Hints:
Layout: H1 9-25, H2 29-48, H3 58-65
Amino acid sequence: MTVSVMKTIDEHIQKDQEEFLKALSEHNEGKVRHLTEELQWLLDHKKEFPDDPHDPSPLELFCEQNPDEPECLVYDD
Length: 77
């Protein structure tokens, strides 16, 4: 699997929407579920940070949705 780097969140949303439609037409239910969740997380991020055009990493998106997960906790020393 090749990971492509997008410059903006809008590019990422557009790419995921295109892949979502392709997965729907191919009846690829697993990919449809994955892209549905990822698109929702991207749209939530864009709504929360409307002036920030950067493409968030998967970890950023995950932690926004799951802030209490161990990998998302930040400790001050």
